[in-house]
Write a structure and sequence with these properties.
Jelly Rolls, 7-stranded antiparallel sheet, mainly beta, 3 helices, about 300 residues
Length: about 300
Amino acid sequence: MRSLSQALLTVALVLAAHPASAQSAAIPLAQRIVHYDATKVRECAPCHLGQGAAMFFGLLSPASLDAPLNFLHRGYIAPKSSIGHHFHNRAEEMFFIFDGEAQFTVDGRTSTIKGPAAVPVRMGHAHAIYNATDKPVSWMNVQVVYGPGSSAFDLGDTRVSAALDPVPVFMSTRFDRALLRPVEAMRGGKGVAQYRRAFDGAVFSTAWSYVDHIVLPPGASIGPQATGDIAEIIYVMAGSGVARVGGETAPIRALDVAPIRSGETHGIENTGDQPLEMIVVGIAKDLAAKEAFLATPRPTRPPPRP
């Protein structure tokens, strides 16, 4: 069943999303970069027939990329609140949390995950998230569609008081800097980046192609390079720097999102005095482009220095 509040939320979020057009590449880079503003969040209550309230702000919409992104939402889940158990049969999602902890559910199995972390959900798999704590949990959701439409089917299950598995039986990742490995002159950039591919394209059934975790120390950079038929979303977790796309430059800082269309030459540099930490989501223009990307061998890197 599809709740009225869910339908109203969808309309509200489309209106609130960054107003990029299909020609967003022609919009100045500084205007394409969107900053999360907690004062602009909208309430979803109940969200997918969950408990309490989740708060959202639409940062990116389908017009933001030339790839099958549906949205990127950022906000928080209120204490003792949930996004109820539901399906998307033509879309894949990934729930991120950046602090605290939350109870994630996939296909009726629930485990507590500590942030910063993410849980991918493939098409046709039921999912939910519940904040069982007394503090808000910072949250983000990225949805990539398989084709037109992204219908949802709500199960009417809040997942409050769900039985917990001590070890998750579904895919998850933590954005732990200790898991990163050094990469010298990443894409021809300066210094040594810290890098890990958290998920590759085999995880997803849509054109979603990868999720990377990258940290640049002060002065380091990722060199300007085009990623072919792969569009990227750069979400800044911490720090500040400068993004370069084509011949343009623009500042970026924590809580910014930079959409990069396929074929655009782009790079990023840490011009601050603190580490610049990012999540990079790669989405192919279509499934054929994804298959070509997966068939291209990735460059091998030398082992870390002792």
